[in-house]
Structure formats: structure tokens, C-alpha cells
Amino acid sequence: MASAFPTLILASSSPFRRQLLQKLKLPFECHSPNIDESRRENESAQDLVQRLAYEKAKAVAAKYPDALIIGSDQVAINAAGCILGKPGTESNAISQLKDCSGSTVVFATGLCLFNSKTHQAQVACEEFTVHFRDLSEEVIKQYVALEQPLNSAGSFKSEGLGIVLFRALEGRDPNALVGLPLILLTDFLAKEGIVLPFS
């Protein structure tokens, strides 16, 4: 185990990722990366989130030359294999949830732990599956009006009222659904000599 805890940076402005990382009871700072998140031609969802997680971490590395930097990115993939982005508007959110009703959506979350001193990166993708209930248009509209999930991929917040939209959840780490797979991150940290719980 390392004798002292290194500087840990969460390359994200997401309050949800910050809350998740706090579960590990480690000191960390947040720094929002500024990168182009456009999807490349023929890039799979899994490749996209892993690349963006790496690019987010790498973008922050210049400011923190001796740190462990966490980058993460997430997309939702519907039953037809289409990537669901952030809806942005209520009408788009309602449309997305109508498409999800009664079907299965896979959330792919890319995670990167970048050591800015050694330039070593650990990168992987964690998937989590959501099985939606059959949702009436009235229920969908009520949900969107109440929770305003306009900046959430898939148009719901599983950490909030969104849980009522599901009939089942399937995956190794429920934290991945919110946007930061802590089981995988714990594995990555161990490879950097940080075995949790850290004292």
C-alpha cells in the first residue's frame, strides 16, 4: 500500500458522480474537463464511452502532473441498438421513454484511471441493464414533469424517482447505472497500490 494517499481528481462536474465517489471515503478534488464528446463514424457505444473517459482524464492531467485522475462517460443503448443521448427537452424525454416502455436498455459506462505521473491508463467499460415496465403516456408525462431528467441519458434518474419506471435491474454494480462503477474503480485503485478501505 502506498505510504500516503496521492492526489485524486474526478474529471467531472456531475454531482451524481461526486456523490458516488464520496462512498469510498477518499479525499478527492473535482475538475471539469473540456473535450469534444462527438461520436466518431462507426464507433460502437462501448468504444465511445471508453475513449471519452480516457480523453476526459487526459484533458485534466496537464493541470495535475502527479495525480490519479478518474474519467467516466456513459451512454444508453435501446433494444434497437441506437444510442440514446441526453434529451434536452421535455418532448424529447417523453419520446425516449415511450420508446423504452416495455423494453430493455443497456447502459454502457466507460471508466478510466489515469496516472498523470507515469502516464499509465486503466480503461474499461461496465454495462448495466434496465428492464422497463409498460409505461402509459400519462405516467411518462407525470414523471418527466416531476423529475425533469433532461440532462440524463435515457431520460430518467435511477437515483431518484426513475426507479419506479423499472421492472428489473441487471448488472454487477448498480453504481454504474448512475455513472461511476465503483467496483471497477476499486480494482483500478488497487493496481495503483490503494487497497480500500484506505487509512
Report on the architecture of this protein.
The protein has 199 residues and is an alpha/beta fold. Helix content is 31%, strand content 25%. It has a single domain (7-191), classed as Maf protein. The protein is built from 6 helices and 7 strands; from the N terminus they run βαβαββαββαβαα. Strands 1, 2, 3, 4, 5, 6 and 7 form a 7-stranded mixed beta sheet that branches. The chain is elongated and about 55 Å long.
Q: What is the gist of this entry?
A:
With 199 residues, this protein is α/β, with parallel strands linked by helices. The protein has helices at 15-22, 45-61, 90-100, 137-147, 174-178, 182-191; strands at residues 7-10, 29-30, 67-77, 83-84, 104-115, 120-132, 166-171.
Can you give keywords for this protein?
199 residues, alpha/beta, Maf protein, 6 helices, elongated
Q: What's the CATH architecture?
A: Alpha-Beta Complex
Number of distinct helices = 6
CATH class: Alpha Beta
Please write the string of helix (H) and strand (E) elements: EHEHEEHEEHEHH
Main pleated sheet:
7 strands, mixed
Q: Label the structural class.
A: alpha/beta
Instruction: Write down the Rg.
Output: 17 Å
> What is CATH's topology name?
Maf protein
What general form does the structure show? elongated
The N- to C-terminal Cα distance equals: 10 Å
Low-confidence stretches: none
Fraction of residues in β-strands: 25-35%
Average pLDDT for all residues: 93
Using DSSP, what is the number of strands? 7
User: How many domains comprise the coordinates?
Assistant: 1
Helix share bin: 25-40%
